[in-house]
Amino acid sequence: MKKEQLLDLYHQMVLIRRVEERGAELYQAGKIGGFMHLYIGQEAVSTGVIAAREARDRVITAYRDHGVALNCGIPADAVMAELLGKATGMSKGKGGSMHMADTEKNMWGGHAIVGGHLPIAAGLALGDQYAKNDNVTICMFGDGATNIGYFHEALNLAKTWGLRVLWVCENNQYGMGTSVQRASAVTDIRQKAEGYGMKSGQVDGMDVMKVYDAAKEAIDFVRTNGQPYLLEIDTYRFRGHSMGDPERYRKQEEVKKWQENDPIGIFRKYLTEKKTATAKVLDEIDTNVEEEVNKAVQFAESSAEPAMEDLFTDIYTE
Ligand SMILES: Cc1ncc(C[n+]2csc(CCOP(=O)(O)OP(=O)(O)O)c2C)c(N)n1
Ligand SMILES: [Mg+2]
Q: Which of 36, 142, 175, 287 is buried deepest, with most CB atoms within 10 A?
């Protein structure tokens, strides 16, 4: 990877972190309504996976979607405005935190029903199969979603019909307050692919370079063979499940242990040790991101709410 691309990945990870830190403040100030789930701690996952796609490859995810939106190239302005429910948001302020989408950027949405978007991913890939192209659909979901019927139906169909889907399980160790051990018969999530004769892999999700390499290999496999693949990416969310989670189900020592493996810190170390960039250059990127996010907040706060007459538009296709 060239230096510019590496620094761009660093920029993306820091941007996700700062957008969400500011988002959390705005939520606490009552400026964001509804549920909001932060991606802080998991930044290396979507950053590494989406860097490995071609622009023609589709991405679809669950409700923890702010990072995915930013990685797909949706500007911070549009993400922040959507969080605040403003008409200038990428979903015109009518989707909010859990429903960020921009099909022009091939970002097919955040989806709030656990597992509900997996059959949609199979459908997107079936559409590409009909159109006789070799685009890949990247479908991201949590460990909890793999205990839902939709996961099994979608993986079965994908293998039976030879659909080009990269199934990405972000195993952040918990589904709300329930640990993987308490909810899943097998704790190595990748094993679930075996029941469908599907190839699978597993990678450390705190290291963006490892994620990128694993995702690149998996996407190449899917594209070349016309077969799905399940990639388990092990990670951790540093914050609660959603805003206002008292986190009684996990110990602070456990959270601290994972925080010592901060994906941004790991990547900073990688970049400085490889002499790709000095700490000063990385600090400058941090400052630029701060500025970018300040502007995004100003843009969002000064934008208009959606108009009353738009209440019933964008519900059905016309
Ligand atoms: C069908 C359905 N059941 C329950 C819920 C409530 N719910 C929201 S998030 C969540 C946990 C999902 O965990 P996981 O898939 O691991 O994703 P994570 O939140 O860890 O990213 C649950 C049970 C829901 N949204 N949809
Ligand atoms: Mg989870």
A: 142
